[in-house]
């Protein structure tokens, strides 16, 4: 991701029509048209200065992929910033928020940057209720340097002891992958999410060895 | 939540190994592939995203146009893209054909 924005960052746009959709794809409505237009940066290459963004539709699981221009970006929030905005009041009783609060204590000493994505991240950024009773916590952990397997196993042990289900994604400078798969599949191949698409590979910190397909 | 089933009676080659790949996480899925006790191949999908029966059918028609193993495939899907579904299936086949 060029500039200061990265996949999973949430951005507030100046106006809703700032999102354009690929030709032939239907445009989608926001969760609530009266709310401010928060969108998430998608994992895709930037072309012609267009930022790939994802929007949440009005229906459950409805997601739309579109593009916006840098000039439309009003505010941005990274996952590690969102973590510090833990939901207040009655929303805190939702399992996904409790899980985040639990991990906030347990992962305090972690060197890597981390924070929530998915519905939890979206709700913390926008204030628009998106988390449901059965929502998982999507957790993003940034690992610019190689995470040793023992370190990953310790991390997974802590994360899987949380009160709710956590979907933990590790982001390297090259791709994203599942922490659960890393600790269970190693050294076998796993699914690597790159900005050019998904591939099977065994080293998420080095995609140059040509064995990733 | 939706449950989908497909049958591919022409897939008759004997399979002896089993494979378990993938994870139930956003945009991904878990696949269990094992020898089928019934004749032919059977696919059982549980998905969190409703209304994509035709897309699943297209993926499996394509998969079984190349693969002829008499397998039972159980899928636990959390919104995997068609491309990821094929990657996960290829990965499972790689494990059982080793």
UniProtKB/TrEMBL annotation, chain A:
<dbReference type="InterPro" id="IPR048903">
    <property type="entry name" value="MdcG_N"/>
</dbReference>
<dbReference type="Pfam" id="PF20866">
    <property type="entry name" value="MdcG_N"/>
</dbReference>
<feature type="domain" description="Phosphoribosyl-dephospho-CoA transferase MdcG C-terminal">
    <location>
        <begin position="91"/>
        <end position="203"/>
    </location>
</feature>
<protein>
    <submittedName>
        <fullName>Phosphoribosyl-dephospho-CoA transferase</fullName>
        <ecNumber>2.7.7.66</ecNumber>
    </submittedName>
</protein>
<dbReference type="Pfam" id="PF10620">
    <property type="entry name" value="MdcG"/>
</dbReference>
<dbReference type="GO" id="GO:0016779">
    <property type="term" value="F:nucleotidyltransferase activity"/>
</dbReference>
<keyword id="KW-0808">Transferase</keyword>
<feature type="domain" description="Phosphoribosyl-dephospho-CoA transferase MdcG N-terminal">
    <location>
        <begin position="7"/>
        <end position="79"/>
    </location>
</feature>
<keyword id="KW-0548">Nucleotidyltransferase</keyword>
<dbReference type="InterPro" id="IPR049180">
    <property type="entry name" value="MdcG_C"/>
</dbReference>
UniProtKB/TrEMBL annotation, chain B:
<dbReference type="InterPro" id="IPR009662">
    <property type="entry name" value="Malonate_deCO2ase_dsu"/>
</dbReference>
<keyword id="KW-0963">Cytoplasm</keyword>
<protein>
    <recommendedName>
        <fullName>Malonate decarboxylase acyl carrier protein</fullName>
    </recommendedName>
</protein>
<keyword id="KW-0597">Phosphoprotein</keyword>
<feature type="modified residue" description="O-(phosphoribosyl dephospho-coenzyme A)serine">
    <location>
        <position position="26"/>
    </location>
</feature>
<dbReference type="Pfam" id="PF06857">
    <property type="entry name" value="ACP"/>
</dbReference>
<dbReference type="GO" id="GO:0005737">
    <property type="term" value="C:cytoplasm"/>
</dbReference>
<dbReference type="InterPro" id="IPR023439">
    <property type="entry name" value="Mal_deCO2ase/Cit_lyase_ACP"/>
</dbReference>
């Amino acid at each position: 991701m060029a500039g200061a924005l990265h996949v999973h960052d949430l951005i507030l746009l100046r106006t809703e029509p700032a999102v354009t959709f690929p030709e032939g794809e239907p445009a989608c409505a926001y969760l609530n048209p009266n709310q401010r237009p928060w969108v998430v940066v998608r994992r895709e290459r930037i072309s012609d200065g267009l930022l790939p963004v994802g929007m949440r539709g009005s229906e459950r699981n409805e997601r739309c992929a579109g593009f916006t221009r840098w000039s439309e970006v009003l505010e941005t929030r990274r996952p590690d910033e969102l973590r510090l905005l833990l939901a207040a009041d009655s929303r805190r009783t939702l399992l996904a928020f409790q899980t985040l609060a639990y991990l906030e204590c347990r992962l305090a000493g972690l060197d890597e940057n981390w924070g929530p994505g998915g519905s939890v991240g979206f709700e913390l950024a926008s204030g628009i209720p998106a988390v449901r009773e059965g929502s998982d916590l999507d957790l993003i952990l940034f690992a610019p340097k190689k995470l040793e397997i023992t370190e990953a196993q310790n991390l997974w042990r802590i994360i899987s002891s949380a009160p709710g289900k956590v979907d933990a994604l590790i982001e390297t400078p090259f791709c994203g992958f599942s922490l659960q798969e890393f600790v269970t599949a190693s050294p076998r191949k796993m699914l690597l999410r790159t900005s050019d698409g998904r591939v099977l590979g065994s080293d998420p910190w080095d995609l140059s060895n040509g064995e990733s397909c | 939540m939706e449950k989908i089933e497909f049958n591919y009676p022409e897939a008759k080659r004997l399979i002896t190994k089993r494979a378990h790949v993938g994870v139930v996480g956003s945009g991904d899925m878990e696949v269990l592939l094992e020898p089928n006790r019934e004749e032919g191949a059977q696919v059982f999908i549980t998905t969190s995203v409703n209304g994509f029966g035709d897309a699943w059918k297209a993926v499996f028609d394509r998969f079984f146009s190349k693969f002829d193993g008499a397998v039972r495939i159980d899928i636990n899907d959390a919104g995997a893209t068609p491309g990821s579904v094929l990657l996960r299936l290829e990965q499972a086949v790689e494990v059982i054909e080793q």
